[in-house]
UniProtKB/TrEMBL annotation, chains A, B:
Signal peptide: none annotated. Pfam families: PDH_C, PDH_N. It catalyses: prephenate + NAD(+) = 3-(4-hydroxyphenyl)pyruvate + CO2 + NADH. It comes from Sulfitobacter aestuariivivens. Pathway: Amino-acid biosynthesis; L-tyrosine biosynthesis; (4-hydroxyphenyl)pyruvate from prephenate (NAD(+) route): step 1/1. This is prephenate dehydrogenase. The keyword Nucleotide-binding does not apply. GO terms for biological process: tyrosine biosynthetic process.
Length: 305, 305
């Protein structure tokens, strides 16, 4: 690869950072990658599995002399981490993040960064239900989208270098604004996660149906919800609290539609239901044609363990 | 296999019937399997792909001399089909069905069946988002549960034979009552499907976010909902209309929980959210341990097309 950066610091060593590291290795990245995690247990695991060229015990050590610093921590602590590392940043360095929310992260991080450091917020739209330093893999970003959300007046060259960096990890890259990002993500990610968490919580809480029954009979549809409802609780708590308005707006729309469908069920309006269920098939086809999901039945998961 | 039946008639040649046929072949079933579908196009496809030993042009032909008749039609037409075939049923034959709802199906079918015919309602909890005669495959029922819902006074031998039949197709078999079945399925299948349909419909209908964006960025969570929201519209319309009370009860519980979580978001109650999201992880683990889903990230679907 052409190297947009000589030294990269990954801050927070969970699913995204560890996948970035393995994707960098796969791309033949020749610079140095430092890593830092707040938890000493996470740092120990990283050292044990060879995650990062050098795992640092302090944030300052990790970011010193880095050309690119990637904040891979929950969005609720981005601001505090930015404040803590600000003095150690190299002039001319680029700081980016991978947070699922952009407006609040920009407001929390930008004020702490010194003049001469480029801040280019980002968000790779990729993940799994697993978390932690052992969960990463090099293919995570392949054919997925990374959105860059640069603030006005950002050096175009800093944006171009970050774009080329993400492309080298396998991602497609696009730019958008923070408010639009947060609304699009509320639809494609935040509301679906909250709804999945809710449905799984309801099933867990019913007196008349046991957890054992829910588990045994989950292949009838329910299990599809449990994957995203197994995602990292801290990350998701922060996402909902940081993207409050857009998430609540979409949930409001969702509730309105759900009430309309409940009413159609109660009134026996089969035509309304049939028309609605026919319309929703088209989006699935679009997703498959765009290479964003598999057409194999049941996501291609094996029928047997 | 030990043959519980000499001749089996599959009525309605969609995903379930076609999977049953291929599973019977895999099991080395030595009897004859007849098939019937209302649509001549479906019958033509069945003949073309070798689905069923004999595809019949009339319902009467298909069920004549059958030892087991399996109704694989949408639950809304089960009663009419039962009425139409009643006179052609062989004394001592067993009639079963694969409908996703049991109380209404039993009420619709049972009155039409003549004395001397055993009616043992059933429901294989297995499926995919695909439908039609080409969508079946032999492994569909492997390690999945089939619920038998026999009415009081049914000949135990007729139940035992049907159990052994389903086991030969790869399924685990359990018995339950119709009301409990319908409640459990409302939780594990019907409510999740309606919620998925709703979320996909909302995404499709937003003015400020394009379908193109929803599709491109669907890997952030949304795409998990689109699979079950691509299921057969006629089948699902009938399910909701036939399992009205239980589905509306679960959706009521769901809405209540969703409102509580929306309020926690609005009020910034991170502890409530975190606790809720932690609890829902356990069910996912249970499902994986029970062999009802894969632990591979993203259901194991390939990262690349």
């Amino acid at each position: 690869m052409t190297e947009p950066y000589g030294r990269v610091a990954l801050i927070g060593l969970g699913l995204i950072a560890s996948s970035m590291y393995w994707a960098l290795k796969r791309a033949g990245f020749e610079g140095e990658v430092t890593g830092f995690a707040r938890s000493s247990e996470t740092r120990d695991i990283a050292r044990e599995i060879g995650l990062c060229d050098r795992v640092c015990d302090t944030l300052t050590d990790a970011v010193t002399d880095a050309d690119l610093v990637v904040l891979c921590v929950p969005v609720g602590v981005m601001g505090a981490v930015a404040a803590e590392m600000a003095d150690a940043l190299k002039p001319g360095a680029t700081v980016t993040d991978v947070g699922s929310v952009k407006s609040e992260v920009i407001a929390a991080v930008a004020p702490h960064l010194p003049e001469g450091v480029h801040f280019v917020p980002g968000h790779p739209l990729a993940g799994t239900e697993h978390s932690g330093p052992r969960s990463g893999f090099a293919e995570l970003f392949d054919n997925r989208w990374t959105l860059l959300v640069p603030v006005e007046g950002t050096d175009p060259d800093a944006i171009a270098r970050l774009r080329s960096f993400w492309e080298s990890l396998g991602a497609n890259v696009e730019e958008t604004g923070p408010d639009h990002h947060d609304l699009v993500l509320a639809v494609t990610s935040h509301a679906p996660h909250l709804i999945a968490y809710t449905m799984v919580g309801v099933a867990d809480d019913l007196r008349r149906v046991t957890d054992g029954e829910v588990i045994k009979y989950s292949a009838a549809g329910f299990r599809d919800f449990t994957r995203i409802a197994a995602s990292d609780p801290t990350m998701w708590r922060d996402v909902f609290l940081s993207n409050k308005e857009a998430t609540l707006e979409i949930l409001g729309r969702f509730t309105e539609e759900l009430f309309a469908l409940q009413r159609a069920i109660r009134q026996g309006d089969g035509d309304h239901l049939h028309a609605y269920f026919t319309r929703t098939r088209a989006i699935r086809r679009g997703i498959i044609e765009a290479g964003q999901d598999t057409d194999a039945p049941n996501f291609g998961r094996g029928a047997k363990k």
